[in-house]
Write a structure and sequence with these properties.
three-stranded mixed β-sheet, binds zinc ion, alpha+beta, SH3 type barrels
Length: 236
Amino acid sequence: MFGERPNPAADRAAVRAHLLVHRPNLRQPAFTRLAPTDLRSLFEQYDARSFGGTLQRTLAGTPLTFRVSRRMTNSLGLTYRYSPPLRFEIVISSTLLFGNFATDDRPVLVCGLPAHDRLEALQLVFEHELVHLAELLAFGHSDCAAPRYAGIAHGLFAHREHQHRLITPRERAAEQGLHVGARVRFEHNGRRLTGVINRITRRATVLVPDPKGARYSDGRHYAKFYVPLDALEPDD
Ligand SMILES: [Zn+2]
């Protein structure tokens, strides 16, 4: 099922050329929109080129769906196997993709390979998820930290690592002085509020002292606000 490919970089370039021409959302390497149909197109291209059609054949009608997630901020991609009834899903984080490839960022590695632009990062993470799918189809489980996965990913795609080193919203926020415990200001319904960051995902959870709010472990009462990171200012 898992042959080696003589030139993974050439496969990747051919898929890229196809996407740039045929997917309206992906006409630019710095694309700003991504839809499940784009992911399906990636699947079809890679299945044909890198897997010789084995994935589609092995699925044999088992549903495979694609999802673009804004809420996923810790993983760039995930592959799920659900049962019963058996079905598979590949999810890609738009928040991480679109939060990277600004100027002056540190280099971004996906699967241990440098991603020069957003489209290349999308392709690399999608290749990673396809190896998960292939393992799930063949063995019923998949672990990208295990040697079997590494062997397949290297043979098909020349991947060197199973982790991705993108810049997360948390890291991006920390560059601006926004970290858990930091005092921040923000506006809410026309009022200026000051509080402390309690948690950071796509948004920050900010606790603002409020006698009517819930009691927290420090014995004080706070009201909780979910604030977009770019709406926060460090309060110093
Ligand atoms: Zn993985």
